[in-house]
Design a protein that fits this description.
By secondary structure, the chain is of the alpha+beta class. It is built from five helices and eight strands.
């Protein structure tokens, strides 16, 4: 479970956890249906889906990118399925099938709980992460207030 208590608590979190909080609060505020992290040669790309359209967000900072999957794995409850016997008939003859890790992440915002489906493609360094939000409009106002409170306490040096 990932819990937002206050902007002070958020400021004291390690950077990967703080990034995850800010990203979730931003997407909840925007009423996003899903969040996608896509790995590319240049690093991670981040998208939120709002009303059926993908919108690109600022990517995670480089120091967060290396720990992104591990941070989400630590905060979510995931099931890592067994790898079935699969024959690769095209592509790399040494290729290995890696099933997705699937589970949920419970986010606590004040007294409210929201469960989000999490899917992690475990291939390294590629793969991706998808977080699906159900009924994001229920916490949009509360998420916006929490995000504004956190951003209001930052000084100009924190925003650079």
């Amino acid at each position: 479970m990932l819990t937002f208590v206050s902007s002070t608590q958020l400021s004291s979190e390690p950077e990967p956890i703080r990034f995850l909080h800010v990203m979730l609060l931003t997407c909840l505020r925007d009423r996003a249906e899903s969040i996608d992290f896509r790995s590319t040669e240049g690093g991670w790309l981040l998208y939120q889906r709002v009303e059926g359209r993908d919108w690109e967000l600022l990517p995670p900072p480089e120091e967060v990118q290396a720990n992104l999957k591990a941070t989400i794995r630590a905060t979510a409850k995931l099931v890592s399925p067994e790898r079935p016997d699969v024959s690769i008939i095209a592509g790399d003859p040494n290729g290995v099938f890696e099933p997705q890790e699937v589970g949920w992440l419970t986010y606590r915002l004040g007294q409210h709980l929201i469960d989000m489906v999490v899917r992690i493609d475990p291939r390294e360094p590629w793969g991706g992460i998808r977080i699906e939000l159900e009924h994001p409009e229920e916490l949009a106002g509360l998420a916006g207030e929490a995000l504004a409170d956190y951003l209001g306490q930052l000084d100009d040096t924190d925003l650079e």
